[in-house]
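Action item from last meeting closed. Structure (307 res):
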């Protein structure tokens, strides 16, 4: 048993530098990250399980409009929200995920219900929304999810005729944790990329890509250009390097992010191991991130030079 519980969270990676964010955006994001760390830490400090901590932390970020998940999610080409989320428990590698859902207030909790109350791993679209209602998952509508800035972003994207999201100022959210018993877990939640269509699904809800947890190795949550993270199988690849090559977390995370970059992608990952060790690695100018551990208060950072 380890008493070194730790929780690491992210709120997306991208072209985030001091000139891009307003003071309100900077402060609002930091405050939300801190609240998410506190929510997860409350679980872990009371001998709770890492799977409960990552869900609690992600729920806070899903409810906060500074990030691209649930409330404040980016919009599809048709101006709708299609939300993706996943959660995985490193104890037994049980996992649940949803893609293209639009009625659960907290998609990570819906993913948790898929894991705990269905024989499946990944549910999509209308079927997943039906499952949410059957499971009495709290519902929300467009008035909750859609914030004006995302409408403006979609309009700007359509004008630029660039269908792919290049403005990743507010990103996907995720959490990884190791609890006092040395069990790891990961969760990720996102609206995907602005202007997505044709039922596009990114890496976040795909187990082994944007989300992965295995007590034999580590837990991983990713953010970035999802297509490249899928092709690199980021979560599983980091875990495999740790498990089979015995690499330290930082070396494994850096190597796999270099692989993403070599394919033409960008973004970042957060990783925790069963000894309570934790790292992040990103190829972008910034990544919203934070960490709290037994005996160490919450700290948050946005820009690359913040350490
Ligand atoms: N990885 C997410 C996706 O491709 C987007 C992000 O991290 O901002 O859906």
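Sequence:
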């Amino acid at each position: 048993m380890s008493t070194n519980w730790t929780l690491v969270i992210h709120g997306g990676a991208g072209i985030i530098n001091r000139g891009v964010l307003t003071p309100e955006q900077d402060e609002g994001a930091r405050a939300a990250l801190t609240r998410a760390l506190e929510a997860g830490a409350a679980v872990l400090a009371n001998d709770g399980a890492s799977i409960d901590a990552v869900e609690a932390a992600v729920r806070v970020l899903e409810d906060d409009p500074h990030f691209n998940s649930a409330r404040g999610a980016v919009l599809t080409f048709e101006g709708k929200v299609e939300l993706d989320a996943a959660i995985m428990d490193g104890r037994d590698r049980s996992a649940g995920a949803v893609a293209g859902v639009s009625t659960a207030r907290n998609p990570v909790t819906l993913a948790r219900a898929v894991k705990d109350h269905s024989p499946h791993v990944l549910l999509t679209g209308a079927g997943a929304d039906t499952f949410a209602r059957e499971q009495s998952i709290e519902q929300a509508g467009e008035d909750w999810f859609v914030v004006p800035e995302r409408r403006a972003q979609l309009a700007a994207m359509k004008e630029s005729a660039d269908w792919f999201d290049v403005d990743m100022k507010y990103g996907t959210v995720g959490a990884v944790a190791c609890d006092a018993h040395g069990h790891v877990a990961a969760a990720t939640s996102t609206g995907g990329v602005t202007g997505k269509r044709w039922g596009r699904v990114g890496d976040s809800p795909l187990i082994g890509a944007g989300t992965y947890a295995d007590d034999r190795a580590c837990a991983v949550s990713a953010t970035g250009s999802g297509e490249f993270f899928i092709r690199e199988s980021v979560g599983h690849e980091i875990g495999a390097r740790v498990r089979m090559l015995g690499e330290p977390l930082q070396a494994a995370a850096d190597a796999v992010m270099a692989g993403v970059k070599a394919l033409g992608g960008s973004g970042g990952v957060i990783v925790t191991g069963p000894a309570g060790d934790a790292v992040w690695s990103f190829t972008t100018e910034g990544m919203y991130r934070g960490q709290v551990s037994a005996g160490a208060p919450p700290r948050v950072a946005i820009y690359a030079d913040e350490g």
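Note appended to the action item: Residues 12, 68, 168, 171-172, 190, 192-193, 202-204, 210, 223-224, 226 surround aspartic acid (CB under 6 Å).
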